[in-house]
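The data layer described in this paper is built around a simple, fixed record for each protein. We quote a single record here, exactly as it is kept in our systems:
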Amino acid sequence: MAGPVAVGAFCIPVNFDRKFFIKVMDSKQLTSGAREEWFLKIKELQKTGSLRYKVALVSHVFIDTRGIAKAVRAGIKRVISRLNLDPKKALVLLDGSLKAPQEFVFQETIIKGDAKEAVIGCASIMAKVTRDRYMTRLAKSYPQYTFNIHKGYGTSVHRKAIKKFGPSKIHRLSFLTKLLKK
């Protein structure tokens, strides 16, 4: 209901030891502490050059003006371009119903991919932790909304704060139409 959408991309070489990811699963199924641990491990591996990841945050303004689906597509395009992949060689695995830009010849969409494919799960973890940290920082500017607790999702506490204080500058107004009518 508030803040940007986060899109993550994760790149490993063909010879990467996938056993490293044995306990990775859908970021929403992990505790926040487990997500943080994986986030730090993955950041360390990126520093060593063992793998690469990128996260794009697409603003609430983009979401409100163009829609969440276009915001996610824009995020995918951004993160993939930042990884500088060869579209004729890279295998791109995507979650749900997502698609990479069409120049990526080898792409596969996997329903519930973040739970079934570790690299998709890792991208999900990196995106979620990045967004959660961003929303926690925003909580300092908007303490009445307690973004540090619910990260901008539609919890009852968040809904009550919107009812009491109205939407902030970082709320997705397109997500609040029903709530604001009540």
